[in-house]
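Hi U.,

Before I forget, here's the chain from the pilot set. I'm dumping it here mostly so it's searchable later in email.
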Amino acid sequence: MRGGFRQRYDETETRREELIARLNSLGDGARAHPGYKRALKLLNETFRRSKLAQRLSVLQAAAWLIDLLERLALTL
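Structure:
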């Protein structure tokens, strides 16, 4: 992510919105998993408290967790 502050900020917000949409598309089985709440916390509280430079790492952690939840949802 290169560019000015505003461009980087907008890109991280767009990525966050994409991850929230993926998380919301999961079924009830995945929503019952404790990882679901953790992913929500990463995408909301942790993301908002982090500086812009750290937000990319927060998004990567949330994406990993959502990937895991999607795989678990396939087995449930």
